[in-house]
Amino acid sequence: MKIAVVAANGRVGRLVVKEAVDRGNDVTAFVREDANDTVAQHVVKKDLFDLTTDDLKDFDVVIDAFGAWAPEALPLHVKSLMHLVDILKGADVRLLVVGGAGSLYVDSERKMRLVDTPDFPDEFKPLASAQVAQFDELEKNGDEVEWTYISPAADFQADGERTGECILAGDELTTNDRDESVISYADYALAMVDEAERTGTPDAHIREHLSVVRK
């Protein structure tokens, strides 16, 4: 497949690129800086907000790995994703989004999200809230794009091992048989590329909010 990874130099982006390349996909890394820290076969230096339809129209899948943590940059989660949605409207290109766990529901009635639970760490609430807003905007305005939003488990481990086994679930917080909600960046990348490779098949989760947890 022809896969574009936007914001590819980030820690998740780099692992998604590696996973996709290792499986024989043709991957282009879109980076803002001169440096390329990925193993992508092709590299394009261009700011996300300068991307146009022409830049992305020939890919099968675009993976949005954008992430911002500084308080002043948090609104860019919504702004950046909506820019990608706007330029992909009407294009035959699938959009996969690296999401956040805070947007997952903790009840079957879908009335409470993880970010709103009493024990959710205060230090992560601003980021989680920005990602909730990001998903809500995508769900509201993404009718003309074949998107899939993939949230990690609650404990998203940057340096965790790649086990090669994970559970794909929906928009409710899911735990494994050990009552854990945990996933490594590497296993998350595996799940992301799994979903990318479902593109064009009946198994693709179009306009769905997914989550992934270690098996």
UniProtKB/TrEMBL annotation:
Pfam families named among the record's database cross-references: NAD_binding_10
Family matches, as InterPro entries: NAD(P)-bd_dom (IPR016040), NAD(P)-bd_dom_sf (IPR036291), Polyketide_Oxido-like (IPR051606)
Ranges for domain NAD(P)-binding: 8-194
MF (Gene Ontology): oxidoreductase activity, acting on the CH-NH group of donors, NAD or NADP as acceptor
SUPFAM superfamilies in UniProt: NAD(P)-binding Rossmann-fold domains (SSF51735)
Coiled coil: none
The protein, known as: NADH-flavin reductase
